[in-house]
């Protein structure tokens, strides 16, 4: 019997995918609970969004709020145990994506985490492009995406993504946070930043505005793309 050993790139791809899938699984019950006005979910989001743009270790109040047990189990089932650096990458990616989603979902009556589909792209580049008028490039918005793409480290990236998320929230544009978490894991790998920047740029340029401008999932509201909605029905 021959034992097949996965290569390092394959293992890293699996770790990134597991990080994204686990993030989606964590968000799903919180999002359902929030949208049905369940008190525990509303309270959890109020705590989570206070961590947006901050390092995991800076917000001990969030430790244990989200169950990352399945994430650790799946990572250990990939053929070899993850290293300390790999575990940290995964935990940090989940933390950044989860807290940004909580900020994005704040006071929104519809789901702000929606999965990317070919006919409804919801990667970061496509979401930012959705802030702009059809067939036009809003240069100030484009520069914010570029600024995120050139962040020197994950804490800086998290803060710059926070600024973009506020714009998306103000225009009711959803984002695939499972995909974002997967990309955030890749971002932290050696050479990963270039690959993630390429993915964001590709999704930005491949995006096409929907014909139905009244589709709340795809089209921006009448709010200016540079004015973030800061209303908060569940302020905390």
Automatic annotation (TrEMBL):
Family annotation (InterPro entries): CRISPR-assoc_prot_Cse2, Cse2_sf
Top-level lineage group: Bacteria
UniProt-annotated stretches for the region Disordered: 207-236
Compositional bias segments (type: Polar residues): 219-229
A Pfam family: CRISPR_Cse2
Gene3D superfamilies documented for this protein: CRISPR-associated protein Cse2
Residue ranges, compositional bias (Basic and acidic residues): 208-217
Protein name in UniProt: Type I-E CRISPR-associated protein Cse2/CasB
